Amino acid sequence: MNSTNIFLTKPALLLSSYHILGSLCKRLSSTSNISEEIIRQNNLFDIEHKKQKEAIGRIEKIEVNYEGPSETATLVMNKHISTPYDCARHLGEKIAEQSAVALLNNDTLWHMHKPLPDSCKLRFLHYKVAQPASVNKIFWRTCSFILGAVASNSFKDNLKVQLHSFPSPNVKSGSFVYDVQLPLDNWQPTQNELKVLSIEMIKFCQQNHPIHCMDVSQELALDLFRNNTHKYQQIPNIAANHNGKVTLFRAGHHIDISRGPMVANTSHFGRITVANVIKLDTDIPGGPIYRFQGVALPRSIVMNHFAYSLLEERARQLNPARIPGTVENFDEDNSFVAHVTA
């Protein structure tokens, strides 16, 4: 298959700058191009979200003790309704915009848009904290999640794209990853095609999507992913290891399974490069599995062109993460929380 004709629209002449590209893929930024399957998934997500909110019943108050670098505050919030992001907005828009993730009781990372279950101590972590390892890992995980959105929506409709999975984030590996099944025998993307994918990821992030999460039953997860062979097979094992629940994340119209937490909003992303797509040697039926790899920086982190080019070069090398196969025990940690030491 001619690889120059696999995207939703033929790329116009690609110039040197990402900002002066011609007409490229449009589905990620156009609601008119959303598929029936995406609409179905989002309807299920919305119905379940409404159902869970209605099931809360009588509103109980909780005390959230905020511990900031130079100030403290006690906030009276709503149990199972108020989120760390709501708390941050009470403290100031700057805190809300800069915070990547919340830290509860000094030991548990918590997604910014996940309702708080009880009274707690609360801190906010940003990208310039003294010990950034946990924040970096959360940012990397979110990169993979968004890369999946780009991979699943950037190809023509006649190409069946199946997201398989993305491994646990490993910043030291040099790239974030998503493994995707494509009906292309030996696709080796050109630099122009990689630029197309990079631009689509940038465009998606520039839409400033809040990233929401929700815990759902195995039955709902199976219904939501009934048309994705790989995730449908993975869900029972995930649920069996997490009290029958599966964690979903949504940004824009894209929904996926992940252990979480992730960063609060796609607006946190700055420089982004989809550096390579590599065909993997695997025995998974249904077509070749390709490893999409990229590198990115938070918007608040500035790096000169030469230093960033070194990161791009490293990200082109095959990421050493586990290669998926038919014989494996897929166990994605599906909890809303992740301990700092994890």
Brief sketch in words of this structure:
The chain is of the alpha+beta class. It contains 8 helices and 13 strands.
Please describe what this structure looks like:
The protein has 342 residues and is of the alpha+beta class. Helix content is 29%, strand content 23%. The protein has 8 helices and 13 strands. It has a 6-stranded mixed beta sheet, covered by helices on one side. α4 packs across α5 (191-206). The longest helix is centred in the middle third of the chain and has 21 residues, at 133-153.
Secondary-structure blueprint of this entry?
Layout: H1 36-54, E1 61-67, E2 72-78, H2 84-91, H3 93-98, E3 101-104, E4 108-110, E5 120-125, H4 133-153, E6 162-165, E7 176-181, H5 191-206, E8 211-217, H6 218-224, H7 229-240, E9 245-251, E10 254-257, E11 269-279, E12 289-298, H8 305-315, E13 337-339
Parallel strand pairs: 1-5
Antiparallel strand pairs: 1-2, 3-4, 3-5, 4-13, 6-7, 7-12, 8-9, 9-10, 11-12
Brief descriptors of the model:
alpha+beta; six-stranded mixed beta sheet; four-stranded antiparallel beta sheet; 8 helices; disordered C terminus
Number of helices: 8
Q: Structural class of the helices, strands and pairings?
A: alpha+beta
Strand order of the largest sheet: 2-1-5-3-4-13
Note the gap between the termini.
43 Å
The total beta strand count reads 13
Helix share, percent? 25-40%
Could you report the average pLDDT, rounded to the nearest whole number? Answer: 89
Compressed to H and E, one letter per element, the order equals HEEHHEEEHEEHEHHEEEEHE
Radius of gyration: 20 Å
Mind summarizing the main beta sheet? 6 strands, mixed
